[in-house]
């Protein structure tokens, strides 16, 4: 018996009507909190609309996390493969979703490696792929992961803790020019040069080890602008650099084209402009039948044309969701469907 031939399992818990938040709590049928205090994913109803899960569909959640999106799709009758590079997430989601039996399969790896991961389990085509880019709330809230400076923790930021390079390595070993480029390109930090220079000066005397040390050092010479902490963009940039997030996203998008069956859906949720820009440009390109350039006498067929856009503009969280989960304010969802007539 393959993992896809098993019988459906019973749902472990239900979502309350107002629980569409990334850091909300799943509730049991009687309305009480689930034993594990599950985090409910962002834009859940919107994901369900565009993924359209149902019996007979094979879907992939490329960023499994706590398993909230996956659980909802399983409850709708789909078979789901969940992918994550974080062992802690795989353990958590595996326990949460064990009631669905072999209708759910968890795979360890980066979602950019999806073709190889699926091939190992006899799958080459799927009916839908979801990725929710960014750091989960429970990762942010866990000080030892080093993603946030809200609590003191090691300057780590690795989503895959088996990799060697940490944020501390980047901060303490990169050249001033390299740090400047990281802060400018990945954090869009206006004071990138100044921050890089001061970091190099300070680390010559004392290396940066903790999140709060770096954050407090930056705030000592960069004034607060609005509600954001002066170190916010630097921490974003370091996280992106440590995990090669933009490169991973680009590789994933190219692979998704090959993995989806005709009629299959691609749904991507991003949390900052750099990622959203990549997704927007990609979806626009693969959904444009013809390409026109000034030097050409007439438009030419687009060899990459394989999709139809389902979202002309990004879908964002409702006011109700934002009241329950302020972290959802940056979330943007874009979706596209592979053309039925193009079987690639």
Automatic annotation (TrEMBL):
Reactions catalysed: cytidine(1402) in 16S rRNA + S-adenosyl-L-methionine = N(4)-methylcytidine(1402) in 16S rRNA + S-adenosyl-L-homocysteine + H(+)
EC annotation from Swiss-Prot or TrEMBL: 2.1.1.199
Record family assignment: Belongs to the methyltransferase superfamily. RsmH family.
Gene name for this UniProt entry: rsmH
Keyword match S-adenosyl-L-methionine: yes
Domain of life assignment: Bacteria
Compartments reported by the entry: Cytoplasm
Entry keyword S-adenosyl-L-methionine: yes
Entry binding sites for S-adenosyl-L-methionine: 67-69, 84, 111, 132, 139
Keywords: Cytoplasm, Methyltransferase, rRNA processing, S-adenosyl-L-methionine, Transferase
Source organism (scientific name): Oceaniferula marina
Cellular component GO terms, alphabetical: cytoplasm
GO molecular function, a single term: rRNA (cytosine-N4-)-methyltransferase activity
Entry's Gene Ontology BP terms: rRNA base methylation
Entry protein name: Ribosomal RNA small subunit methyltransferase H
Matching PANTHER family: 12S RRNA N4-METHYLCYTIDINE METHYLTRANSFERASE, S-ADENOSYL-METHYLTRANSFERASE MRAW
Role summary: Specifically methylates the N4 position of cytidine in position 1402 (C1402) of 16S rRNA.
């Amino acid at each position: 018996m393959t993992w896809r031939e098993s019988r459906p399992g019973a749902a472990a818990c239900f979502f309350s009507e107002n629980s569409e938040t990334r850091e909300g709590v799943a509730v049991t049928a009687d309305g009480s909190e689930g034993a594990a205090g599950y985090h409910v994913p962002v834009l859940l109803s919107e994901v369900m609309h565009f993924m359209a899960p149902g019996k007979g569909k094979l879907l992939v959640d490329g960023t499994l996390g706590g398993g909230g999106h996956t659980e909802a799709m399983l409850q709708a009758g789909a078979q789901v493969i969940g992918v994550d590079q974080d062992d802690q997430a795989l353990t958590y989601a595996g326990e949460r979703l064990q009631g669905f039996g072999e209708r759910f399969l968890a795979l360890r790896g980066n979602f950019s490696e999806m073709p190889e991961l699926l091939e190992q389990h006899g799958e080459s085509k799927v009916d839908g792929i979801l990725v929710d880019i960014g750091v989960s709330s429970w990762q942010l809230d866990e000080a030892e992961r080093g993603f946030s400076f809200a609590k003191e923790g090691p300057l780590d930021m690795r989503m895959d803790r088996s990799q060697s390079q940490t944020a501390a390595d980047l901060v303490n070993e990169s050249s001033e020019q390299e740090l400047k480029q990281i802060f400018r390109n990945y954090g869009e930090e206006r004071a990138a040069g100044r921050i890089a220079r001061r970091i190099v000066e300070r680390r010559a005397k004392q290396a940066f080890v903790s999140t709060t040390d770096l954050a407090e050092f930056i705030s000592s010479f960069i004034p607060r602008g609005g509600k954001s902490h002066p170190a916010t963009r630097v921490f974003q940039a370091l996280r992106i650099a440590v995990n090669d997030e933009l490169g991973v996203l680009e590789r994933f998008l190219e692979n998704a084209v090959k993995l989806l069956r005709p009629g299959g859906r691609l749904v991507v949720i991003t949390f900052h402009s750099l990622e959203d820009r990549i997704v927007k440009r990609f979806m626009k390109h693969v959904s444009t039948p013809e390409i026109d350039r000034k030097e050409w006498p007439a438009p030419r067929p687009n060899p990459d044309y394989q999709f139809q856009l389902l979202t002309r503009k990004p879908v964002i969280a409702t006011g109700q969701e934002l009241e329950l989960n302020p972290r959802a304010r940056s979330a943007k969802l874009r979706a596209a469907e592979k053309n039925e007539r193009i079987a690639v």
